[in-house]
Design a protein that fits this description.
single chain; 80 residues; alpha+beta; two-stranded parallel sheet; 2 strands; 12% strand
Amino acid sequence: MTAIFLKLGGSLITDKTQAETVREDVLARLAHEIARARQAQPHLQLVLGHGSGSGHVAGAKHGTRPRGSHGPRNGSVSPR
């Protein structure tokens, strides 16, 4: 069986206007939906990932990334 990568986008699971603020209602709903899918398909293999979401607040504050930029595609850090 093939594993499915499921990315929970940062803007979906966090409040991007406040640092480190999870959207608990959304996260609880997603957890319930994932549990239901796994009950319906016991052999379902999931790999979960997540975006940065409200982590962008800290990045903007400390200037680690230009506003609106997703940074270099090769994973290197941009000089300040």
